Amino acid sequence: MKVYEKNPPACECEEVHADIVEKRRDEMPDQSTLYDLSDFFKILGDSTRMSILYAIDGGSMCVCDIAALLGMTKSAVSHQLKILRQSDLVTYRKTGKNVFYALADDHVRDIIEKALEHIKE
Amino acid sequence: MKVYEKNPPACECEEVHADIVEKRRDEMPDQSTLYDLSDFFKILGDSTRMSILYAIDGGSMCVCDIAALLGMTKSAVSHQLKILRQSDLVTYRKTGKNVFYALADDHVRDIIEKALEHIKE
DNA sequence: ACTACAGTTGAACAACTGTTCAACTGTAGT
DNA sequence: ACTACAGTTGAACAGTTGTTCAACTGTAGT
Predict the structure, then answer these.
(1) What are the extents of the domains in chain A?
(2) How many CB atoms are located within 10 Å of the residue A46 CB?
(3) Which partner from A59, B1, B48, B72 sits 20 to 30 angstroms from B18, CA to CA?
(4) Distance to chain B for A52, nearest Cα, Å
(5) Angle at A48 between CA B20 and CA B79, to 5 degrees
(6) What residues of chain A, 16 to 55, have a C-beta less than 8 Å from chain B?
(7) How far is Cα B84 from Cα B108, in angstroms, rounded to an integer?
(8) DSSP for A48-77?
(9) pTM, rounded to two decimals
(10) Per-residue pLDDT tens over the stretch A80-105
């Protein structure tokens, strides 16, 4: 939402270390990269979605079973699965009346694993 | 918020694969672990906080300069720094009128780096 | 064709989150 | 003691987010 510019308007500071600020500005990633990054983490920043990811970590599961496991309605789970789908974190496969969801790749597993290490300290 | 139980109340499914669900239930992490994990990612899931982390990645900065760099008010930055402090993602050091913030450790850097790899695909 | 059920979807609602604003604390300089 | 300014803080507000509810789609079985 916020966009930082060459001559930031909102800063009311007097004693700015202009040289440092300018140097850092060059080193900062693109605005879009920062948004992509925080958007990615936003997906993982919900306990329901985190639970779903762990549930299907051991193998694909249908919506019904995920809902049963988490003690939630199919609707609530389906809404969250949609978000996970749109972020390409999960894949799905229709077989008859069921839709089976699975983890899309190992990247996410690694990231969550690293975060777990960080937390346990 | 949601707590899953041995006999989930909210699931209205008929065709549940009970054996799979029970097996997964045993393999699931503790409820508290899931919350800690998603809470951690929640912190990284905001572009302002992500920007701040990148800003101080190159070395400690005072609140004023961070605000100038991001084009935000000191107040807004300070509020986010408080959250980052409470999560032990940053450290701070007072010198005179300024407060310099720095990254707490390398863990976070690694996680963000891994997420970046994931995004660029 | 009809019924049953897994899954999806949009609207509505409540809870949460980030920024703004104004008031405040504390340090430095005069 | 006074002024100036960096930084913090709580309340208020607007925007966002997750769950619920009800209606819907599509497939399987009869």
Answers:
(1) 46-120
(2) 18
(3) B1
(4) 10
(5) 155
(6) 16-17, 20-21, 23-25, 27-29, 33-51, 54-55
(7) 12
(8) HHHHHHHHGGGS-EEHHHHHHHHT--HHHH
(9) 0.89
(10) 999 999 999 999 999 999 999 999 98
Flag whether residue B113 sits within 8 Å of chain A, measured between CB atoms. no
CA of residue B75 to C1' of nucleotide D9, angstroms: 9
pLDDT tens per residue across span B51-100: 999 999 999 999 999 999 999 999 999 999 999 999 999 999 999 999 99
As a CATH number, domain A46-120 is: 1.10.10.10
The sign one gets for the Cα dihedral B35, A47, B37, B79 is: negative
Q: Which segments in chain A show pLDDT lower than 70?
A: 1-15
How many residues can be counted in chain A? 121
CA closest to D8 C1', residue:
B78
Q: Record the tokens describing residue A93, joined without a space.
A: 């496969």
**B91 min Cα distance to partner chain A (Å):** 16
B72 touches strand C (CB under 7 A): yes
**A90-95 and A98-103 as β-strands: parallel, antiparallel, unpaired?**
antiparallel
Nearest CA-CA partner of B53 in B65, B42, B44: B44
Do residue B107 and residue A116 have CB atoms under 8 angstroms apart?
Answer: no
Tokens for B96, please give them: 């005179």
Q: What is the mean pLDDT of chain B?
A: 88
Q: Do A10 and B71 touch (CB under 8 A)?
A: yes
